[in-house]
């Protein structure tokens, strides 16, 4: 379901904004006592996001790979806290990320990694859509298809009809995101191994 709010302006990175390195993001993980399984998941999500960003670069689409990497590494920064104390981990994580980095684009990827509430225009909103999509392609710490990822979510979290419906809506959006990104990049994302090697 799309938001009734006005959609944001096209997302563009400003060269003057601070972008933390991978090692700095990993230090934030330690500072926030991130569980090891969430670290493993976040590492794989970042590999997928960086791989897609590099494909975009090759297609001469203007992207800033370090910003995408940082947003992917930070996307679950509040997950451990929310498991222990409650709260919306994407909203908390976005607030913490903005405070830590001062970079609204990195924070936007964290805020919207669960669900994108606007028209999913891959060209205008490449970073948040790539973070959201990359998260959906990693089950725990393993690359998977959208179908398997959401089947797992339905089994683990689908305790009520309302939750099941929300999971299904997110799955349908993920399929749309995949198609929009494929159209923009001119690649079959399910044919990609997303093995970018070391994080840049």
Structure description:
With about 200 residues, this protein is an all-alpha fold. The chain has nine helices and two strands. The chain has helices spanning about 20-30, 35-60, 65-75, 80-85, 90-100, 105-110, 125-135, 145-155, 160-185, and strands spanning about 140, 140-145. A two-stranded antiparallel sheet has the order 1-2. Helix 2 packs across helix 7, helix 3 packs across helix 7 (about 125-135) and helix 4 (about 80-85) packs across helix 5 (about 90-100). The longest helix is centred in the last third of the chain and has 25 residues, at about 160-185. It is globular and about 45 Å long.
From the spread of the alpha carbons, the general shape counts as: globular
Average per-residue pLDDT, rounded, comes to 94
Count of β-strands:
2
Distance between the termini: 35 Å
Main sheet specs: 2 strands, antiparallel
Low-confidence regions: none
Strand content: under 5%
* Number of helices in the DSSP assignment: 9
Assign a percent range to the helix content. 55-70%
SSE arrangement, N to C: HHHHHHHEEHH
Question: SS-based structural class?
Answer: mainly alpha
The radius of gyration computed from the alpha-carbon positions, rounded to a whole number of angstroms, is 16 Å
Strand order of the largest sheet: 1-2
């Amino acid at each position: 379901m799309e938001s009734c709010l006005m959609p944001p302006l096209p997302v563009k990175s400003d060269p003057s904004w601070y972008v933390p390195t991978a090692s700095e993001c990993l230090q934030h993980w330690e500072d926030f006592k991130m569980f090891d399984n969430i670290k493993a998941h976040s590492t794989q999500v970042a590999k997928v996001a960086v791989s897609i960003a590099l494909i975009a670069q090759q297609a001469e689409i203007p992207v800033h790979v370090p910003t995408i990497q940082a947003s992917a590494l930070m996307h679950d920064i509040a997950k451990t806290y929310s498991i222990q104390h409650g709260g919306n981990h994407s909203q908390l994580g976005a607030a913490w990320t903005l405070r830590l980095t001062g970079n609204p684009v990195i924070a936007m990827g964290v805020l919207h990694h669960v669900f994108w509430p606007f028209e999913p225009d891959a060209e205008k909103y490449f970073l948040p859509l790539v973070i959201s999509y990359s998260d959906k392609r990693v089950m725990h710490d393993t690359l998977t298809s959208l179908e398997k990822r959401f089947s797992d979510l339905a089994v683990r979290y689908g305790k009520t009809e309302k939750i099941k419906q929300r999971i299904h809506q997110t799955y349908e959006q993920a399929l749309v995101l995949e198609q929009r990104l494929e159209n923009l990049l001119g690649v079959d994302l399910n044919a990609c191994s997303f093995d970018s090697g070391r994080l840049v």
